[in-house]
Amino acid sequence: APDIPVIDQAYSKLSNSITVEWRAVPGATNYILTAQDGDSFVETMVKNSPGTVTGLKPATLYRITVRSINSGGKSQPSPFRKVNTVLAAPILSVRSLSCDSIAVSWKAVHMAAGFSVSLMRSDGLGRMLKQNTTNTSLIFTNLDPGTLYTIKAYAWNANGMPGDDFTYNQRTSPNAPVDVKVAFNSGALRAVVSWMPTEGALTYSVTVSSGLLKLRCNTSSASCMVPSLQCSSEYYVSVTAYNDAGSSEPTDAVSLKTIPCAPVNISIEEDEPGHLLVSWSSVSLGRYYVVFVKSDDGLEVHCNTSYTQCHFQSDCGFTYFISVFAYNKAGQSPLGDVFNYTTAPCCPSDFRAVFISSDTVRISWAPVRGADLYETRAAGGSAEVLCRDTATACTLSALQCSTPYNITVFSFSEARGTNTSCAPQHVATAPCSPEIKNISKEGLSVISVQWQPNNEEAMYVVTARGEAGLWHCTSTRNSCTLMDLPCGSAFSVSAIARSPAGQSLPSYSIPLETAPCCPNDLILTQVTQSVTNISWSAGRGAQTYVTTLESQKGQAKCHTLQTCCLLGCITCGTNYTVSLRAISETGLTSSCTYQGYSSSACCPSGVKLYRLSNTGIRVFWRASDETINYNADLRGSKGNFSCTPSSGLSHCDITKIPCGDVYTVVVAPVTDKGPKLTFCPKKIYS
């Protein structure tokens, strides 16, 4: 075995180890270091000197021995040395109390009589601060904010022997940022907060508070965007810097007033036609308001006011789009609700009323802006007449005739309703149709017509209409007379009423027939001594005729459809009155009188012929009246002969008659005019 080593020295630099130095032993390949503390020990094998035994307890007295080893075995332990391990290092707890101070604390160290703590900037700038203390804590002040410091501490024992040291890097908390600025984006309702970077700050926190509401924004840069701000709000903005040591004091709050909210409770009223009143509720933080009014034709106007209402001129039938904005230094409020207001449609113009009849009027007007529907209302009489239509014309029927009406055309729109400000038009209906009560004949061609007057200030016109033409009469009363109506004609009689308002419908027609016309020509021809033929021209309107010959001796009458008639039982030599009645199909009669008629004188009786000679003859007769003159006619193939006796004689002679012939002899009364009578009895003479 090798020789026993001799320890030159043994010492402790660390609290868990002791270093031993010895002289080398020839032939030794290894050495065993032993540290014994009472019954426990720690061994370590090393190659050569010096060697260190580790795993020891701090501040403990150990007996140190060394043995050499080779292949032959181990030597005996060397004489021991007593060595104390140094004190353990204090375990520091370090924190930055503020931006310029660091607090250091530790637990008590076994066998420590005091402690030494030093502090220095980690970048080597500045001086080192060192403090010795018997306490277990201390505070370094007047440090640089946000700066990394290296802190070293160790304990020493009663002999002043220092123990292990403990190193700790600690940064002071940052200083509060400066030059805080707030840029507000009114359109996006967000703010960008910026500041000057502060030394040692790793991150920043921006706090935006308004009442109980707090918004935060964290960033590592020198600006931060805070979204979702509320309108009409005042926020207080502060910035706090952070690093691993803690936070700075928040900056002084910067006031941020956002844009005002869009005005609400907007009401639009047309306080009078042509004037719009726009009002709204006051908006917090709003300094003034601008109202924009744009009509549907593209024209836009605006009103700038610090009050909560604005007046605008408006036109009928327009739709206005209205928006209200509030303003302050931050900018314009967001766009709120856009209201549209449609004014009442315009009142119809170019009003025209045309009467179709006395109870029907057609109303027309020019179309107006904004009207979807028109309502025509006629007020007057006992009832109100309504008409609704989308067209610009309306026919009002069932009106009362001869009545003044107030006719109003109202325009209507679905958005606004009816424009009730339209002025009425005064229209009077045409007169009522008169009712013919009676038609009476005042004369041959004179007809009186009576009616019921049912209008005020009306002129009545009566018309008789027939194939013969038109006849009129007028009156403002209840009757008038039709003059010079032709006979034998059929008429339809009607009446109308006229006034400045128009003309009534015609009354119901009353048929009228005038008496038939008397024949213009009447001819009486005596056919025989007791038969007379009467003929006449046709009388217009007559269907049958009754002719009468009347004398003191009697009457002869004939009723016929023809225009001639034979009357018998005529007394010769008698004066007759001649009358004719023309009778229409309906029984109307015209009595016609004519010049008197005298029947021819009576034919003589007892006619006898006496031969005077071969060439002469005497004719005898008995006269019916001695005052009558007679004429005798002798007619034969060889000639005609006649004789007329002197007055009072009842015979005459005819001479120079050719012999050998047959003659017809007629004795007839002599007439003043006209042809000779041929109906007296004839005698044959050879």
- Helix content range: under 10%
Indicate the proportion of strand residues.
over 45%
Under CATH, the topology of the largest domain is which? Immunoglobulin-like
**What's the end-to-end separation, in Å?**
242 Å
Assigned CATH architecture of the largest domain? Sandwich
Q: What top-tier CATH class of the largest domain fits best?
A: Mainly Beta
Count the domains. 8
Pfam families: fn3
Protein name: FNDC7 protein
Domain Fibronectin type-III: 1-88, 89-175, 176-261, 262-346, 430-517
Commentary on this structure:
This is FNDC7 protein. InterPro entries: FN3_dom, FN3_sf, Ig-like_fold. Residues 1-88, 89-175, 176-261, 262-346, 430-517 form the Fibronectin type-III domain. This protein is an all-beta fold and 686 residues long. It has eight domains: 6-84, Sandwich (Immunoglobulin-like); 92-171, Sandwich (Immunoglobulin-like); 178-257, Immunoglobulins (Immunoglobulin-like, Sandwich), CATH 2.60.40; 264-343, Immunoglobulins (Immunoglobulin-like); 352-428, Immunoglobulin-like (Sandwich); 435-513, Immunoglobulin-like (Sandwich); 522-599, Immunoglobulins (Immunoglobulin-like), CATH 2.60.40.10; 605-685, Sandwich (Immunoglobulin-like). The protein contains no helices and 62 strands. Strands 3, 4, 6, 7 and 8 form a five-stranded antiparallel beta sheet that branches. Strands 18, 19, 21, 22 and 23 form a five-stranded antiparallel beta sheet that branches. The termini are far apart. The mean pLDDT is 90.
